[in-house]
Design a protein that fits this description.
heterodimer, A: 304 residues, alpha/beta, Rossmann fold, nine-stranded mixed sheet, 10 helices, 10 strands, 18% strand, disordered N terminus, B: 112 residues, alpha+beta, hypothetical protein PF0899 fold, three-stranded mixed sheet, three-stranded antiparallel sheet, 33% strand
Chain lengths: 304, 112
């Protein structure tokens, strides 16, 4: 078990379609076949070929490092007692490859996909409920809801009026690209839709796992510390937009929104920010404007 | 931080490359700004390696310093944190190193 967040996955992740009640287990090929097919998708293994399915990461090195492929040079020469095999394999290549597949699928359908991340309790679900009630028909909103356990948030989203698939990560502390792929397969978003992925409440782990989204949106509520961007820099660096939520509570807390933004800009000079209260509705116009602009951009960019 | 899942990926990559041969050493590059802790990977590796036929393999972790290049003044400098500014004060940086998470190489006992 992970010493930091309790992350593990002895318990398989599940995808529950709240429309049909159908539940599936997210299976991973490397666990089914141990090490034989570590790349985890349709792939007939050919000993002589060179893994072109993951080439973006296993072969393409941004630093231009010379790369000897593992499969091509194990033979030849007098073998020493131990053989050294140069791999230069990106550890997260498999997740990244699935994320790119998700992204291409979504882009071709002009679907805007956003990955909502925050600490537990920052108000992701409440913001989604409110957004769904106000923009459901205009934006075609639907939701992939991630939680470690229970369909409680999924039920809330469904009650607000949007199609939703609940992914339970089991012992896992974040959604990964395969879970989202399975979620999308159940959700079947229509072309032009807006898919909101509500990640597991966690400011650490989800930063590292690309899901195929167009952007990560980090939600920080004023009941938290305004130094969180510095304490959890990976997440604020990965996000395009920071939503400061629960602004209606500002008079009662020590949170300084200007300081929070200054801290976020230190980590990520290009991060945008919006102040709002999902409960009172204050500031929602800016949030809705941002969503409309992003959706227009996705429609302009399809097949470019 | 999710080191168990990360380590499972590492073990899968190694297992595929080893094709059943006995692995004696695995060398990893872990950037100091990668968000992944080497100690936690080492802990998870001991647990997972046993189940994956990598029993007895030594894990070597090469920590890579964070380096960045300032997009304003062009200086290349060590960055201790993700948000360490350039000495000129700029936060507009291009990361040169420190975010690696790479299975560099493996060593195997010669197969019969």
């Amino acid at each position: 078990m992970c010493g930091h967040c309790g992350c593990g996955d002895e318990t398989a992740a599940t995808v529950l379609n709240l429309e049909t009640g159908k539940q599936r287990t997210v299976k991973r090929n490397e666990r089914e076949h141990d090490h034989a097919h570590a790349h985890g998708h349709l792939h007939h293994h050919d000993q002589s070929h060179s893994h072109d399915h993951d080439c973006r990461h296993e072969h393409g090195h941004a630093d231009g490092a010379r790369h000897e492929h593992s499969l091509s040079h194990v033979h030849g020469g007098a073998p020493p007692a131990d053989q050294v095999l140069t791999l230069e394999a990106q550890v997260l290549a498999k997740n990244d490859a699935i994320a790119e597949r998700n992204r291409a699928w979504l882009k071709g359908r002009e679907i805007l996909t956003l990955n909502l991340v925050s600490s537990p309790g920052a108000g992701k679900t409440t913001l989604l409920e409110r957004t769904i009630r106000d923009l459901r028909d205009e934006l075609g909103l639907c939701v992939v809801e991630g939680d470690q356990a229970t369909a409680r948030d999924g039920e809330r989203i469904r009650a607000a009026g949007a199609p939703v698939v609940q992914v339970n990560t089991g012992a896992g502390c974040h959604l990964d690209a395969e879970m989202v792929a399975r979620g999308l397969r159940e959700l079947k978003p229509l072309p032009g839709a807006v898919v909101m992925i509500e990640n597991v409440g966690n400011l650490i782990c989800p930063a590292l796992f690309d899901l195929g989204e167009r952007a990560k949106i980090v939600i920080l509520s004023v009941t938290e510390g305004d130094d969180k961007p510095l304490k959890y820099p990976h997440m604020f660096k990965a996000a395009e937009l920071m939503v400061l939520n629960k602004m209606d509570l500002l008079p009662y807390v020590d949170f300084d929104p200007a300081r929070a933004l200054a801290n976020a800009l230190q980590v990520n000079p290009s991060i945008g920010s919006i102040r709002l209260s999902a409960r009172t509705g204050e500031g929602l116009d800016a949030w809705y404007g941002w969503l409309r602009d992003e959706r227009a951009r996705v429609r302009d960019l399809a097949f470019t | 931080m999710h080191e168990l899942g990360v380590t499972q990926n590492i073990v899968a990559i190694v297992g595929e490359a080893a094709k059943g041969r006995r692995v004696t050493r695995v060398t990893l590059e872990v950037g100091k700004l990668s968000g992944v802790m080497g100690d936690a990977i080492a802990f998870c590796f001991d647990v997972i390696a046993k189940d994956a036929g990598l029993d007895g393999a030594t894990l070597e972790i090469l920590e890579i310093d964070g380096r960045a290049c300032c997009e304003i003044c062009g200086l290349e400098f060590y960055a201790e944190t993700l948000f360490a500014p350039c000495p000129c004060g700029s936060h507009r940086l291009r990361r040169i190193s420190g975010e690696e998470l790479i299975v560099k190489s493996i060593e195997m006992a010669e197969a019969a």
